[in-house]
TrEMBL record:
Record family assignment: Belongs to the complex I 75 kDa subunit family.
Location(s) in or outside the cell: Membrane
Taxonomic placement: Bacteria, Pseudomonadati, Pseudomonadota, Alphaproteobacteria, Sphingomonadales
Protein name: NADH-quinone oxidoreductase
GO MF terms, alphabetically ordered: 2 iron, 2 sulfur cluster binding; 4 iron, 4 sulfur cluster binding; metal ion binding; NADH dehydrogenase (ubiquinone) activity; oxidoreductase activity, acting on NAD(P)H; quinone binding
EC number: 7.1.1.-
Annotated 2Fe-2S ferredoxin-type domain residues: 2-79
Length: 666
């Protein structure tokens, strides 16, 4: 491990570390634009110059210079100061004076570094060059006059997103960053380029001219658009969430977020349920809370113990726990969370968990995808597979062929292949140190037992490694399974319940339910349209909630804004309703509910990664038939919030269905 001095401070860094990393280890800030720790080194901007001895008598780019023994690095010498001022002066030659109208203002690297390391004046008075704005789709707004050619967006698109649709054309002063043929970038992760851009060249199109950073109130939250559990920060002004940014968590989402995570938030203020409704003479009529509770109480008296609850994809654990207790007090245990009709064995949570863990997937050396379009079902898992490939992993897949952004050997779409893998695949898995099988929802029902047989055949579960994984797509799924929201017959076992509560469940086939339907949710979507009583609840941004992601990690988000109108937090609705039904729940506050939940369900007593014992069920090892189509057919419209979002609707129309949109010239 190299030892060197940085401004007189001796530091020791890992082999292969750069001088910039050594400076950071010594507590010295090095200004930079093009360098990013999760991207390859470009060395474009030259802002990270330092003086190094022994070495040539000129400043050197610390981001691209390997740290070595006996180096002496100076970060504040007159040479370094003069060099940084010169680089800053060059970068600003063509930069327009857009700060008063630029959405990057207030959190702009160029502003901050110019103030801290630049000169107070420029010696250049030539005309600034002009570059036409490029079209990159409904997510990214471009103002290419501001671009400093750091190429962060280019490297991200190629290395992380796997979509090589952004690049540079021309040379020298004429160099421009653009998308391929100036068309929309077809990536589920394109919004990350806005965060990566150190200037205002790439900004958020849905957010443009909305607010300044200092106007916003920041709240930590957990994303519910998929089961990854992306850590996010919701930025709100007044009672509206205006921005959603990822929060760094190397175990879960690193520092990325999908476009759905970022931009479905404009659906939080549209199509909202803000008062209770009761269906009378075929039409939903607004009523007061007591009136709605009276109607439900009358039906509960008639239903007896024939009461069920169906949990939707976006529901928090507190809501499911409160509903479960209320149904238990009414003598019912009819609970189900797999609203689309999935039916698989849940007797062992380890057999339906992502056991390798999200971060651990990078270490896999042989990967078999079974019935999973990982790019749409869990895009941030897909980025981990790309990192595993860079380390030498081979990827095989069973299912209909799709573009996963990396090279895959498709074996076919018949589940019988699980019992008769090609010899070269079987040989590789037998030799692999960290073999991994990832089972998606399209294969879970028919191929669960056969996939578990592979786990035994290839010794996927061994000391320090568990390579058997199931990909869930709902933020509520693992929490629901822990709470018992799964029945052997699936949702079909609940069709004949006389009273059914739908907890934000909008993907259900409501025509099969013959009894009285109560919808508790936040959007006027399919569930509200089919319900006999609608009780307005709170979205994930309007309540504190606990969620368990697909790897069994318990996480908690906080409330960013209040629900609209007469809407209430879902758990409090069940607490009030239980009192009306004569079975008052044993808590009257959120802390009380969490304490009660932690006592009765130990998995929720603390945050962090849960450990499930590997005790797989004995299932039939035979599997046959085609995988069929993947469950997600439109990545941008998977839940009620997305369907209410104008941004997600346009993404779906343009990126999935190929519609074209004309934009006025500016």
């Amino acid at each position: 491990m190299p030892k060197l001095k940085v401004d007189g401070i001796e530091v020791e860094v890992p082999q292969g570390a750069t001088v910039m990393q050594a400076c950071n280890a010594a507590g010295k800030e090095i200004p930079h634009f093009c360098y990013h720790e999760r991207l390859s080194i470009a060395g474009n901007c030259r802002m990270c110059l330092v003086e190094v001895k022994p070495g040539p008598p000129k400043p050197q780019a610390s981001c691209a210079l390997p740290a070595a023994d006996n180096q002496e690095v100076f970060t504040t010498s007159p040479m370094v100061k003069h060099a940084r001022e010169g680089v800053m002066e060059f970068l600003l030659i063509n930069h327009p004076l857009d700060c008063p109208i630029c959405d990057q203002g207030g959190h702009c690297d160029l502003q901050d570094i110019a103030v801290a390391y630049g000169k107070g004046h420029s010696r250049f008075d030539e005309n600034k060059r002009a570059v036409t704005d490029k079209y990159m789709g409904p997510i990214v707004k471009t103002t290419m006059n501001r671009c400093i050619q750091c190429t962060r967006c280019v490297r991200f698109a190629e290395e992380v997103a796997g979509v090589e649709e952004i690049g540079a054309i021309f040379r020298g002063e004429d160099m421009q960053i653009t998308s391929y043929l100036e068309s929309a970038v077809k990536s589920e992760l394109s919004g990350n380029t806005v965060d990566l851009c150190p200037v205002g060249a790439l900004t958020s199109k849905p957010y443009q001219f909305e607010a300044r950073p200092w106007e916003l109130r920041r709240t930590p939250a957990i994303d519910v658009s998929d089961a990854v559990g992306t850590n996010v920060r919701l930025d709100a002004r007044g009672r509206q969430v205006l921005q959603c940014h990822p929060v760094i968590n190397d175990d879960v989402n690193e520092e990325w977020a999908t476009d759905k995570t970022r931009y479905m938030i404009d659906g939080l203020v549209r199509r909202r349920l803000d008062r209770p409704f009761v269906r009378r003479e075929g039409k939903l009529q607004p009523v007061s809370w007591p009136e709605a509770f009276d109607v439900i109480a009358d039906m509960a008296a008639q239903a007896g113990g024939s009461v069920a609850a169906v949990a939707g994809d976006l529901v928090d654990c507190e809501t499911m726990y409160a509903a479960k207790l209320m149904l238990g007090s009414m003598g019912s245990s009819l609970l189900e969370g797999r609203q689309t009709g999935l039916d698989y064995d849940t007797s062992s949570l380890a057999a339906v968990n992502f056991n390798t863990t999200i971060a651990g997937l990078e270490r896999a050396d042989a990967i078999l995808l079974v019935g999973s379009n990982l790019r749409w079902e869990a895009p941030l898992l897909n980025t981990r597979v790309r990192k595993a490939i860079k380390r030498g992993a081979k990827v095989f897949a069973i299912g209909p062929e799709v573009d996963l952004t990396y090279r895959v050997e498709w074996l076919g779409d018949d589940l019988s292949l699980l019992g008769s893998l090609p010899s070269h695949v079987a040989d590789l898995f037998e030799r692999a140190e960290r073999p991994t099988v990832i089972v998606g929802a399209a294969a879970l029902k028919g191929g669960h037992g056969a996939a578990l047989a592979l786990a035994k055949r290839f010794n996927l579960v061994r000391e320090g490694w568990n390579g058997f994984n199931v990909v869930h797509m709902a933020a509520s799924r693992m929490g629901g399974l822990i709470l018992g929201y799964a029945r052997p017959g699936g949702i079909a076992d609940l069709h004949y319940a006389r009273l059914t509560f739908f907890l934000g469940a909008d993907e259900v086939d409501f025509s099969r339910f013959t009894g009285f339907k109560v919808y508790v949710g936040h959007h006027g979507d399919r569930g509200a349209a089919a319900a006999d009583v609608v009780l307005p609840g709170a979205s994930y941004a309007e309540k504190s909630g606990t969620y368990v992601n697909l790897e069994g990690r318990v996480q908690r988000g906080e409330r960013a804004v209040f629900p609209p109108g007469d809407a209430r937090e879902d758990w409090s609705i069940f607490r009030a309703l239980s009192e009306r039904l004569g079975h008052t729940l044993p808590f009257d506050s959120l802390p009380g509910l969490r304490e009660h939940m932690g006592q009765n369900v130990p998995q929720f007593a603390k945050l962090g990664l849960l450990s499930f014992d590997w005790t797989p069920p004995s299932l039939s090892e035979s599997a046959s038939g085609a995988v069929g189509r993947y469950p997600i057919q439109d990545f941008y419209l998977t839940n009620a919030i997305c369907r209410a979002s104008p941004t997600m609707q346009r993404c779906s129309a343009e990126l999935i269905h190929g519609e074209s949109f004309a934009e006025a010239a500016e």
